[in-house]
């Protein structure tokens, strides 16, 4: 919201400079983004009258003019503007004037004719962003010789306020003036709005079919308007200083009233209306060409203004091209309506639009403002364009208009929240100046909320109002009490930060992706996943909450591969979501992805590609940090996103906590990926769990090692053999390692040779061969009986 400081001071003028005013507004919760001058610096420009004009003797496109600049002697100036004419009042830069960008006016000769000054256009004075086609023509009552800058009031500032969505009441000069008046305890002088007496009794019928979305609709037929009249310069300037471009007098006046009062208005060309104006929901498939030329297909949930032929406008958003005011318009139908915020919210965005009207209606427009706005606009139209107004036509549903709201404010609760007791008279004064009606109760006050404050509904809202008007900087600063006792630390837990550092140490980079993913990508990786779909997504490819970290990591890999990054190591921590909103489970996970070469490029590094066991080793390094590696197991399993022959479910203490494997070839083909990638995903609560290390005295006696090679069915997991060995190896087994797996010459077809290293050590004596041989025999017998394993000779 931009506004002119001078315009605001016509309503209320506190004894503050521009920056002081901006600071005060900001401290009241209406943040000021910028304070900028309304015009660039220039000097030596006065109002002048063109008293003579003749063709330049040597140039077809130049004119030689005489201007009266108030000095007493006519001044000759050469002007190339096509619209210069005798009798015009114009801005004239005298010799010695300095225009914006330090452009100095000097005496000159143009094609042999002396020129002493320059008649200026709006762009040359910095009053228009685009280059002007002609000079700036001033009203006929502009006083010749008057300093142009002073006469135009250009020593002014534009103040831009960034309003929060709950303060729609301040999207107007009226609302901002009301706030400034409250803050400075000053009366606000609003322009008088008197009902306009109708000149004729002709009306245009109005029918509201959806009173819940449009509780009030007012229209007026104004006949004989001159749409080609010039918008007054003062209005054009106020619009410009508010960031609005002048178009034609009818549109300018509706925009002006919207900026002044906060009520959006719209004018229809009466000649383009047929039957009656109808406020209704759109019918499926109806189309509308908007004022910006865009043609849209309306959906059935959109509230429209229509006539008997079809839609004329999207209610509260934008009018249609064919029913709008044009140069040939003679009669207009002026509308002013109150639309429910819920009826307009999201409609503009659903069509890719955002307008000043939708911005206001979405936040709430005062339902009591509708009549005043149409009366104010009518008076301005009659003044500028002429015309004959008819009577107002109003359709209202009291049952659907916002009712009076009563909110109780307790003195004790106010003191508790502000840490300060305010005098009752001050509280009542603040609320009264905010437009509220205040009554006393035993505990505090009963407050009636004004119609323009949609954001006040509960006691805390009133406390906020009292606090900001009283002044946040006047409230006591108190530090919250805090207990300084040390909280117990779970030493057995591995902090997530340590897991992150471990992944970085192993060559991974942390990725941070959206919690939302493309539905088709999640469907490809997790066809059976159920997770919430967003009703209002950031974009169509971020419309489903992720059920796994895999989609985000795969998309990040794809992004990097498309940018010639061939070796990728990524990991991510975050929540995944399972189930519907009514039964949503949010699980913290840690996932990783690797593809490309095993080692970074270098003369000493091999060019082997990363494989399943590289990624498994990285995961096992995280597992080892918990000090409980034996609690983890990897078992073959099927996952729709992973290769059926290179995937495993991850178990912790017998409970499934994740998956690891190669990306499924079918998924890779569907995504157009030519490189093999490996992924894992594990629940964070399992990874951070562990056990405290405990000290055991080191044995002074020698270790005994035996190496055993078993012939095992090639389909039999090695883990089953390891489990069998541990069961029979006894309590003094210190280490069991797998150091070789072999298939080939000397090994029967369909079998594999698995070589294990076993190390025993007793804490208090030397183990003898007889004890070790008994253990080995038990291991061999158990392995043969349960697994069919044979000791390889």
Please name the defining characteristics of this protein:
single chain; 793 residues; alpha+beta; Phenylalanyl-tRNA Synthetase, Chain B, domain 1; OB fold (Dihydrolipoamide Acetyltransferase, E2P); Phenylalanyl-tRNA Synthetase, Chain B, domain 3; seven-stranded mixed β-sheet; six-stranded antiparallel β-sheet; 25% helix; Phenylalanine--tRNA ligase beta subunit; tRNA-binding; aminoacyl-trna synthetase; Phe-tRNA-ligase_IIc_bsu
Q: What is this structure, in a nutshell?
A:
This protein has 793 residues and is α+β, with helices and mostly antiparallel strands. Helix content is 25%, strand content 28%. Helix 5 crosses helix 6 (249-261).
What does this entry look like structurally?
With about 800 residues, the protein is an alpha+beta fold. About 25% of the residues lie in helices and about 30% in strands. Helix 1 packs across helix 4. The longest helix has 19 residues. The model has no long low-confidence stretch (mean pLDDT about 90).
């Amino acid at each position: 919201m931009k506004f002119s400081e001078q315009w605001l001071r016509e309503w209320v003028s506190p004894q503050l400079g521009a920056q002081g005013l901006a600071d005060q507004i900001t401290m009241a919760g209406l943040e000021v983004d910028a304070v900028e001058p309304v015009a660039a610096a220039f000097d030596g420009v006065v109002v002048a009258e063109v008293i003579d004009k003749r063709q330049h003797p040597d140039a077809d496109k130049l004119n030689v003019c005489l201007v009266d600049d108030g000095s007493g002697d006519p001044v000759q100036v050469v002007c190339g503007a096509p619209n210069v004419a005798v009798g015009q009042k114009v801005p004239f830069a005298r010799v010695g004037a300095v225009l914006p960008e330090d452009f100095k006016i000097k005496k000159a000769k143009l094609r042999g004719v002396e020129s002493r000054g320059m008649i200026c256009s709006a762009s040359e004075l910095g009053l228009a962003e685009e280059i002007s086609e002609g000079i700036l023509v001033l009203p006929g009552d502009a006083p010749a010789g008057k300093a142009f800058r002073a006469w135009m009031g250009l020593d002014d500032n534009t103040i831009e306020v960034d309003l929060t969505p709950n303060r729609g009441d301040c999207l107007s000069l009226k609302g901002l003036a009301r706030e400034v008046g409250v803050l400075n305890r000053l009366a606000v002088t609003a322009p008088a709005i008197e009902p306009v007496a109708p000149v004729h009794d002709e009306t245009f019928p109005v029918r509201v079919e959806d009173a819940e979305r449009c509780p009030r609709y007012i229209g007026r037929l104004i006949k004989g308007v001159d749409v080609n009249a010039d918008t007054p310069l003062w209005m054009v300037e106020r619009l410009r200083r508010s960031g609005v471009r002048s178009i034609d007098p009818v549109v300018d006046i509706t925009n002006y009233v919207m900026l002044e009062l906060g009520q959006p208005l719209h004018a229809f060309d009466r000649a383009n209306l047929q039957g009656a104006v109808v406020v209704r929901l759109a019918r499926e498939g109806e189309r509308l060409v908007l004022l910006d030329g865009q043609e849209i297909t309306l959906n059935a949930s959109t509230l429209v203004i229509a006539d008997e032929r079809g839609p004329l406008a999207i209610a509260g958003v934008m009018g249609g091209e064919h029913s709008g005011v044009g140069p040939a318009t003679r009669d207009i139908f002026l509308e002013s309506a109150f639309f429910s915020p819920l009826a307009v919210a999201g409609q503009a965005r659903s069509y890719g639009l955002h307008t000043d009207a939708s911005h206001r209606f979405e936040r709430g427009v005062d339902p009591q403002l509708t009549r005043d706005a149409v009366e104010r606009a009518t008076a301005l139209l009659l003044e500028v364009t002429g015309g004959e107004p008819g009577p107002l036509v109003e359709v209202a549903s009291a049952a659907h208009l916002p009712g009076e709201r009563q909110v109780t404010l307790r003195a004790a609760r106010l003191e508790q929240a502000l840490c300060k007791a305010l005098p009752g008279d001050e509280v009542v004064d603040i609320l009264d100046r905010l437009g509220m009606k205040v009554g006393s109760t035993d505990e505090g006050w009963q407050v009636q909320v004004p119609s323009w404050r949609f954001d006040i509904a509960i006691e805390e809202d009133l406390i906020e109002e009292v606090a900001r008007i009283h002044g946040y900087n006047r409230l006591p600063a108190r530090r919250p009490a805090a207990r300084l006792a040390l909280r117990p630390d779970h030493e057995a837990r591995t902090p997530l930060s340590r897991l992150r550092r471990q992944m970085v140490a192993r060559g991974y980079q942390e990725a941070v992706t959206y919690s939302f993913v493309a539905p088709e990508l999640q469907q490809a990786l997790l066809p059976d996943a159920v997770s919430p779909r967003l009703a209002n997504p950031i974009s169509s490819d971020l419309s489903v909450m992720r059920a796994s970290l895999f989609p985000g990591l795969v998309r990040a890999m794809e992004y990097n591969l498309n940018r010639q990054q061939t070796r990728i190591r990524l990991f991510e921590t975050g929540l995944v979501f399972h189930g519907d909103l009514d039964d949503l489970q949010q699980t913290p996970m840690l996932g990783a992805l690797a593809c490309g070469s095993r080692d970074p490029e270098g003369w000493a590094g091999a060019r082997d590609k990363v494989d399943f066991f590289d990624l498994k080793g990285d995961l096992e390094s995280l597992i080892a940090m918990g000090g409980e590696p034996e609690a983890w197991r990897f078992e073959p399993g099927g996952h729709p996103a992973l290769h059926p022959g290179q995937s495993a479910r991850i178990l912790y203490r017998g409970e499934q906590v994740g998956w690891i494997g190669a990306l499924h070839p079918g998924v890779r083909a569907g995504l157009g990926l030519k490189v093999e990638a490996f992924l894992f995903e594990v629940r964070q609560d399992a990874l951070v769990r562990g056990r405290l290390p405990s000290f055991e005295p080191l044995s002074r006696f020698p270790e005994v090692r035996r190496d055993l090679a078993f012939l095992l069915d090639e389909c039999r997991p090695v883990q089953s053999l390891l489990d069998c060995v541990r069961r029979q190896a006894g309590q003094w087994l210190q280490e069991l390692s797998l150091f070789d797996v072999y298939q080939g010459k000397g090994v029967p077809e369909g079998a594999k040779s698995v070589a294990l290293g076993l190390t025993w050590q007793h804490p208090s004596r030397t183990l003898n061969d007889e004890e070790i041989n008994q253990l080995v025999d038990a291991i061999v017998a158990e392995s043969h009986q349960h697994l069919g394993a044979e000791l390889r000779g």
